[in-house]
Each structure stands twice: as C-alpha cells, then as structure tokens.
Amino acid sequence: MSKKYDVIVIGAGPAGYVAAIRCAQLGMNTACIDRWVDSEGKGRLGGTCLNVGCIPSKALLESSEQYEHAGHALEQHGVRLKGRQLDLKAMMARKDRVVANLTQGIQGLFRANSVDWLKGEGQLSGQGRVRFTPHEGEAEELEAGHVILAPGSVPVELPSAPYDGTYVVDSSGALEFDKVPGRLGVIGAGVIGLELGSVWRRLGSEVVLLEAQETFLTFCDEQIAGEAQKIFTRQGLDIRLGARVKGSSVDRKKRKVVVEYEDGEGTHEERFDRLIVAVGRRPATDGLVAPEVELTLDERGMLHVDDYCETTLPGVYAVGDAVRGPMLAHKGSEEGIMVAERIAGQATEMHYDTIPNVIYTLPEVAWVGRTEQALRAAATPYNRGVFPFAASGRARAMEDTTGMVKILTHQETDRILGVHVIGPQASELIAQGVIAMEFEASGEDLARTVFAHPTLSEAVHEAALATLGRPIHMGKAR
User: Fold this and answer.
1) Does residue 434 register a pLDDT over 90?
2) Which of 88, 218, 298, 400 is most buried by a 10 A CB count?
3) With 90 as the cut, is the pLDDT of residue 2 above it?
4) Whole-number Å distance between alpha carbons of 273 and 253
5) What is the DSSP letter of 424?
C-alpha cells in the first residue's frame, strides 16, 4: 500500500522548500522530494540557489569587494594597510561555511514544521501520484491530494563551448576555481556573467565578456544600462557587444582555452586561462513527468500554468524557474506560498509586475516596474525624476557616490510606474519602490514621506520630488 500525503513537493530549492513549509504550516501532511547531493554524496536542501548559485556567489562577491576595498578605497578614509594578501583557499572555505549553515538551517525548518524530507528522485506518474526513487533503495509509488513541481533550472549549454569541468565551466564551476585565472573569458554579459566576472576581476583577473547582443543589458532601463556599462568598463571589465562565439577548443599543453568569435568587424581569436559560459538557464524538467502523463510543456521544457500556477492537470502545480516569469529565487518562493495558500482555500495571488530584479555588482543595479523605453513604446505619458548619489550627503560620507535613483510616474495619475537604481545598496533601496508600487503609491506620496537624514534612501525621496519638478538638493532640470 502506497504512502499518502496531502501535498508532495518535488524540488527543494527556494520555490519548493518554501512551498513545503507553508503547506505544513497550514496543517497539511507534506513531503518534499529532492535529489541534490553534495561532494560527499550527502543530501542537501536549498537547490541551486543555496548550494551553487545565489548564496555562494554573493558570498564571493562580498569577499572580493572587501579585498578590493582594502587595496584601493581605504586610503581615502585615512586607513593605510601594508602587505595586503589574498588567501583564496580561506575565501572559498568561508563561502562553503555560509552555504552549509544555511542549508542546515532549512533542515531545521523542515523538522520544526514536520515536513518529510525524501532524498532521491521524484517523478509525476499521474494525477495525485508520484514515483519516488531514493538514492539508496527501491522505487515506490506515493499518493498525494496535490503535487507541486519545483524542479528549478540548469545552465544552458553552448555547442560552440562545451564544458570540460576544468577550463570551460558553467556558473557553478566558476565558484570553485582554486586559483585566480590570469585571463578569464566570460560568454554572456547578463546578470550571471557580470557578477562572476566582477568577482574574479576584483581578485586580479583580466576579464573579457563576450556578449552576442548588440545592446548592453537590454532588459534594464536604457539610462541605467548606459551608466552601468560606463562604470564597469572604467573598473576594467572588457565588455564586447555583438560578439557571437563560433567555437572554442582547449589547448591542454599550454593550459589555455582558445575562443573564436565574430562581430561587426570580422572574426577574432582570444586565448584565456579559463572560460565561463553564462548564457542563461533552462527548466530542469527532463524526466520530471512520466511519458504517459498528459502535462503541457513547451519546446524549452517550460511547464504551462495558469495565473495561479496550476498546470493542465488538475491538482498539479508548478512554481519557480520551470514556469513563466523571471528566474528569480524570490519569485519562486512567493509562488510556492501562493500555491500552498490556494490549496488551503485562501484566495491568494501574485503581483508579477512588482517583482524586484537585482544585479549584485559594484555598484549594484536594481529595478522594479516599467522602463523608460517601454513607456515610450507604449505611448504612455510619464514624468521622470532622477537624483544622483553624488548629491547625497550619506553617499559622500561613504566615498561611494556612483550612480542614481530614477523614478517614473504616470503623467496624468502620478502613479509610480517604475523605480530604477544603480549605486550603493541598490538591492536594499529597491524595496522602497516595491512597497510603494504594491500600495499603488504616487510620486506625491513618496515626496510627502519623511526620510531619515543622512541616508542613502533620501535619494529615493529626491527622485520622487524630481518627478514633480521640485527637487530640493539638486538644480531643477531645464
């Protein structure tokens, strides 16, 4: 007789484990199946994000920022250091500790909420049925009132630059280098490529990013993207747009990767010590659904869902990277909560137009809502307010005045349509824009709000004032 649950979740990344916890909180008997194992063959919760994605990359971004700050910025504060040294092994060990602590924390949350953690493979075998194959032991059939699919995603592979695990790596491999590459190539100048390139550039690599798109950060507001390109170029990132990689090979004798690419000026060849392929991710849905199950997937392996993340099979839901929308951990987590609450009978919904996006470079880039070019294309009348951090007292005190806050409001209703930030702590400041848009705030609402002084958040206040044509700490635009 098969074991029965109220809910079975397949996948324990940010979408899956959050869904499982919320289901358990709502009184449902819940199991979460996950296949992730660490280098020692032990099961680990957290999926790609916690193990080889968001968390370890941010740990290295923070460490590399501290290293660069110690070498180039502290003297402006009257702090002089002698003999700065990089201990890459210790830096990597710290990154691993951060990851281990957080994944163990999820284990504790599962125990506290009585979620059954099933280590192995899960496959949807029918409506309300899941085939579970443990890492050790025989497969068994499980039953559930509802099933939530949260398989996550995997890096997109390029036929022209196949991984070899040493010289040509994906984003996970780029977090495990045992020495700083002298010359590092990165295919893709999107979020992942910029973050990983920034880590190794700060630690001493010469970094070249090959981006097939003709325009930098096409998904960002064009003013912010233009500013970001100038800043990153000044920092030393060699960003080559319109560069389409035609092929690559590994010269093991010389320990080099040879890359051939084409742009508007012809064909070129570059040699690197290491090559990172960061051209996006695809849903990890291979083998997730038994062939006989009628569940709709598109040609990319994306699961088709409705507005509430229910698939074409009643009682089966899908969340996170395997469904439409941005591949962001926080988006997947909120989808998991929405699904859990809807299973419990609550009328919860997601607001996809107020999901924040962040690039954790230095400076950080963050945004929510519409871009200026999108508003122009839609012929939406709008006002724009921009305030540079160079005019911020707190940013001046921090010696970190790069970038700006930009707010876009509807010209007729004054409702906030988009908030865009490039600069210090942009990932934190953008939350103010998200909250304002969630409450359908106007530019006047932000302009009438009292912000503490001196803080970086005053730049949000001033940008809102600028949309109304009355900035205080900046000359009025002509």
Assistant:
1) yes
2) 400
3) no
4) 12
5) T
321 is in an annotated binding site: yes
CATH 3.30.1140.32 corresponds to the domain 3-154+282-350:
no
Q: How many CA atoms lie within 13 A of 220 on its CB side?
A: 25
Give the phi and the psi of residue 179 in degrees, each rounded to 5.
Answer: -150, 160
Report the distance separating Cα 53 and Cα 61, nearest Å: 12
Fold (CATH) for 355-467 = Enolase-like; domain 1 (3.30.390)
Q: Where are the domains of the chain?
A: 3-154+282-350, 168-279, 355-467
* Helix 329-343, helix 14-25: angle, nearest 10: 30
User: 400 labelled as ligand-binding?
Assistant: no
**DSSP reduced 3-state for 224:** helix
Q: Are the CB atoms for 17 and 50 separated by under 8 Å?
A: no
- Cis upstream peptide for 454 (omega within 30°): yes
CB 30 within 8 A of CB 14: no
The per-residue b/e assignment along 160-175, b for 16 or more CB within 10 angstroms, e otherwise, is ebebeeebbbbbbbbb
Strands 256-263 and 244-251, bridge-based pairing: antiparallel
pLDDT beyond 90 at 81? no
User: Can 3-154+282-350 and 168-279 be said to share one CATH topology?
Assistant: yes
Q: DSSP states of 51-116 as a string?
A: HHSHHHHHHHHHHHHHHHHHHHTGGGGT---SS----HHHHHHHHHHHHHHHHHHHHHHHHHHT-E
> How buried is residue 88: exposed, middle or buried, by Cβ count under 10 Å (0-12/13-18/19+)?
middle
Query: Angle 426-438/458-467 helices, nearest 10 degrees?
Result: 50
Residue 478 has pLDDT above 80, yes or no: no
> Is 161 among the annotated ligand-binding positions?
no
**Using CA of residue 420, residue 425, residue 427, residue 430, what is the dihedral sign?**
negative
CB 48 within 8 A of CB 167: no
Q: Sign of torsion, CA 159 160 161 162?
A: positive
Task: Note the pLDDT tens digit of each residue in 123-157.
Answer: 999 999 999 999 988 999 999 999 999 999 999 99
Q: Is the pTM for the entire model greater than 0.90?
A: yes
Q: What tens digit of pLDDT does each residue of 154-205 get? A: 999 999 999 999 999 999 999 999 999 999 999 999 999 999 999 999 999 9
Q: Is 242 annotated as a binding residue?
A: no
Token reading at 356: 């924040």
Residues annotated catalytic, as ranges: 453
What distance in Å separates the CA atoms of residue 204 and residue 137, rounded to the nearest whole number? 47
